[in-house]
Automatic annotation (TrEMBL):
Residues 1-26 are annotated as: Disordered. Residues 1-14 have a biased composition (Basic and acidic residues). It comes from Corethron hystrix. Signal peptide: none annotated. Coiled coil: none annotated. PANTHER family: METHYLTRANSFERASE DOMAIN-CONTAINING PROTEIN (PTHR36971:SF1), UNNAMED PRODUCT (PTHR36971). This is Methyltransferase domain-containing protein.
Length: 387
């Protein structure tokens, strides 16, 4: 039986030699790897237990095993997740202690629904098709170091154990040790909603804060790095506020509005514009895209990652309001960022929020009545709005 080594370990350097009880077996090594899940597919079987296949990008690999960024197929079976969802299994009885009913009856379908999938991906997953995984999920797993490839050359990883599930990119989850910083933590209440509702909650907050009439001016709201377009659909369908989605990789489904007769249509038009380079030499003949940006009423972004600071700078340049919820700091991509007060590098979430607040016009920065303000939305996770 595999016995984990005591003490601290780091991904990519955690091989553990393991011996089987059978003397005829050769020694094998166990490695710990972490992945960003992309999509998943469920295979059910009456005779055999279900299999969950998760297409994932390697986040932290191991020498001569898997390289960072490599796309692999993780094979997750019921035995791999025993204890991972302990006490939450379907039909569990009692306290769900070790060896209890809830642990024995947990399955990969529940594991996927509870931890990996987006709410709108549950139905496709149960239907046996590929379904998109939730954003910002990191899986840390344990497996043998002998990994085979399928006919397409993709590595097949038989997961021995799911060790940990993390719901944010680890690069951006920095320790916030800045005592006295009012913006260093997120706020939750007993009425806090699940993070899957964050886009809808943000859209409603925009209307309550700025008003439907103001948001409808010009070309409407400009949603930067909006991904699936939930904010825009909510603003348009619920309040009639026009919204433009600006995203380098649109993930909106081909059909997202049911017409009631089995067919469907898009809830908004798509204007594809290929952009190569940094945009400094970009020209547009009819300037239609430029007018959409220049005439927007407000620029917003929900966890826009690299686009967070550009959203603020764009709004300041256009002279329009903005509302952004920071998430990933990514200090290695932006080493030039320095805090206004002490000149220290911006490496934590709290210092990043303060950095954005300090971009407000004037010498005092944000939260001065004339500059930027802070509000917390009622959902789990990075729920701080700077506006």
């Amino acid at each position: 039986l595999a016995k984990s080594r005591e003490g601290k370990q780091t991904d990519g350097d955690c091989r553990q030699p393991t011996m089987e009880n059978n003397d005829n077996q050769t020694p094998r090594s166990i490695v710990t790897l972490s992945f960003f899940p992309k999509r998943a597919k469920l295979f059910r079987s009456k005779r055999r237990r279900s299999l969950l296949v998760v297409e994932s990008a390697c986040r932290m690999g191991s020498r001569n095993v898997v390289s960072p960024g490599e796309i692999c197929l993780l094979h997750i079976r019921p035995g791999s997740v025993v204890g991972t969802i302990e006490g939450r299994a379907k039909g569990g009885k009692g306290g769900g202690g070790e060896g209890g009913e809830s642990v024995r009856r947990c399955d990969v379908e529940m594991f996927a629904i509870e931890h990996l999938m987006r709410p709108d991906s549950v139905a496709p997953l149960r239907g046996g098709t590929w379904a998109a995984a939730s954003e910002r999920i990191t899986l840390k797993i344990r497996t043998e170091d002998i990994i085979e490839r399928n006919r397409k050359g993709m590595r097949i990883i038989e997961v021995e154990k799911v060790l940990r599930i993390r719901e944010e990119f680890e690069e951006c989850v920095c320790d916030d040790d800045e005592d006295g910083n009012a913006y260093g933590t997120t706020t939750t209440t007993p009425t806090t909603a699940d993070k899957s509702e964050r886009h809808v909650i943000f859209a409603h907050w925009l209307v309550r804060t700025y008003g439907k009439e103001f948001l409808s001016k010009g070309s409407g709201v400009l949603d930067v790095a909006g991904g699936k377009g939930v904010i825009g659909r909510t603003l348009s369908a619920t309040y009639g506020v026009p919204c433009t989605l600006l995203d380098p990789d649109p993930r909106c489904p081909e059909v997202d509005v049911d017409d009631g007769d089995g067919r469907g249509t898009r809830s908004f038009a798509v204007l594809p514009l290929e952009l190569n380079g940094d945009g400094t030499d970009l020209t547009e003949r009819d300037d239609g895209v430029g007018n959409v940006v220049r005439r927007c009423s407000l620029v917003c972004g929900m966890h826009p990652d690299q686009a967070t600071e550009p959203i603020v700078r764009l709004a300041l340049r256009l002279g329009v309001p903005f509302a952004v919820l920071p998430c990933c700091v990514m200090p290695n991509l932006f080493p030039h960022r320095r805090q206004r007060r002490h000149g220290d590098p911006v490496r934590s979430y709290s210092s990043f929020c303060q950095y954005l607040l300090d971009m407000a016009p004037g010498d005092e920065g944000g939260e001065d009545g004339r500059g930027f303000r802070v509000c917390h939305l009622p959902f789990v996770g990075r729920n701080k709005v700077i506006y």
